[in-house]
Design a protein that fits this description.
globular, 13 helices, 264 residues, mainly alpha, 2 strands
Length: 264
C-alpha cells in the first residue's frame, strides 16, 4: 500500500474502503488492456472514443461512427460537427507525449478550447464567479471563489507532483485519478472546458502512474453511458465549494474502475 505522504487538497479518508470495494480483478483487467485493431498510422481508435464521448457528455451532437469515418476515411462533415472533437483529440495526443504538470495542463486546455473560448481565456484561470446551472436555469453548484482558484490549483498541482513521485498500486492509482478528476471539477478553474479537462487529467494521471495502457480505458464512454448517474454522483458532495462533503464521494470514485470491465 501507499506509504504515508501529506497531501494538501486530495482527501484520503476513503482510500481503505475504496480498495476493499474495487474488484480484485481490476489489476488484471488493466494489464489485459490493448489497443484496437482499428488504430493505424496516426489514427488512434481509443483516443477517438475519449474525445467523442467526453464531448457528448457536454452536449455535443457527434456520433462515434461518423467521427471514425472522419478520422479514418477523411469523410467530410460540416466543420461545426467535428471541430471541437478534433480539438479534444489533439489535446489527448498532446497529453500522451507530455509530463503532467501545471504548464502542460494549461497547454492542453488551450488546445481543447480552440473552438469554445476566445483566445485570451484559453489556458487562463478564470477571474469571475462560476455557477453550474441546470437546463432550466437553476443553480446546481457554486464553484470555488475566483479569489481562491489559483491557491486551490497550486495545492492540487502540488499533490499531483507528490503522487507522481511515489509508488501506487492499481487500486490506489485509480482512486487518486478519480479524486483529481473530482477536485478539479469542484474547483472549476477555467471559464469553460472544465469537464473535458478533468476527464483528460484523470486518464493522464493514470498513464503517468501505470503506463500507456491507461489511454485504452473507455472511462469517458462509461461516464456518457451513465451520464445521469455521473452527474448525480458529482452532486452528492453538496452545493457550495466551501461546504463540500467528500465522505460522500465513493459512488463517483467507483465509476472509473467499473469502466475497466467494459469489453474492448
Amino acid at each position: 500500500m501507499m506509504k504515508e505522504i501529506e497531501l494538501e487538497i486530495l482527501p484520503t479518508a476513503l482510500l481503505a474502503d475504496y480498495c476493499q470495494l474495487v474488484h480484485n480483478d481490476a489489476q488484471q483487467k488493466f494489464e489485459d488492456l490493448k489497443d484496437s485493431e482499428l488504430s493505424a498510422g496516426t489514427f488512434s481508435f481509443y483516443t477517438s472514443v475519449s474525445a467523442v464521448f467526453s464531448s457528448k457528455i457536454e452536449g455535443e451532437a457527434i456520433e462515434m461512427d461518423s467521427y471514425i469515418k472522419h478520422k479514418m476515411l477523411g469523410t467530410k462533415f460540416l466543420p461545426d460537427y467535428t471541430q471541437k472533437i478534433d480539438d479534444l483529440y489533439e489535446a489527448y495526443e498532446f497529453a500522451q507525449k507530455q509530463p503532467l504538470e501545471k504548464k502542460t495542463v494549461k497547454q492542453a486546455h488551450t488546445l481543447l478550447t480552440k473552438h469554445i473560448l476566445q483566445r485570451p481565456q484559453r489556458g487562463k484561470i478564470r477571474n469571475g464567479m462560476m455557477y453550474v446551472m441546470t437546463p432550466v436555469g437553476k443553480i446546481e453548484y457554486v464553484a470555488c471563489d475566483a479569489g481562491c482558484v489559483k491557491q486551490e490549483m497550486k495545492r492540487l498541482y502540488g499533490d499531483i507532483s507528490k503522487l507522481l513521485r511515489v509508488d501506487l498500486n492499481v487500486k490506489e492509482a485509480l482512486f487518486f485519478a478519480s479524486m483529481i478528476h473530482l477536485i478539479f471539477v469542484k474547483i472549476h478553474p477555467f471559464d469553460d472546458g472544465n469537464g473535458r479537462t478533468a476527464r483528460l487529467l484523470e486518464k493522464w494521471f493514470l498513464a503517468q502512474k501505470l503506463g500507456n495502457k491507461a489511454w485504452f480505458i473507455q472511462s469517458e464512454k462509461h461516464y456518457y453511458d451513465q451520464h445521469q448517474t455521473y452527474y448525480a454522483n458529482i452532486r452528492l458532495m453538496g452545493l457550495e465549494y466551501d461546504l463540500l462533503d467528500y465522505s460522500k464521494a465513493l459512488p463517483f470514485l467507483l465509476m472509473l474502475p467499473q469502466s475497466l470491465f467494459i469489453e474492448n
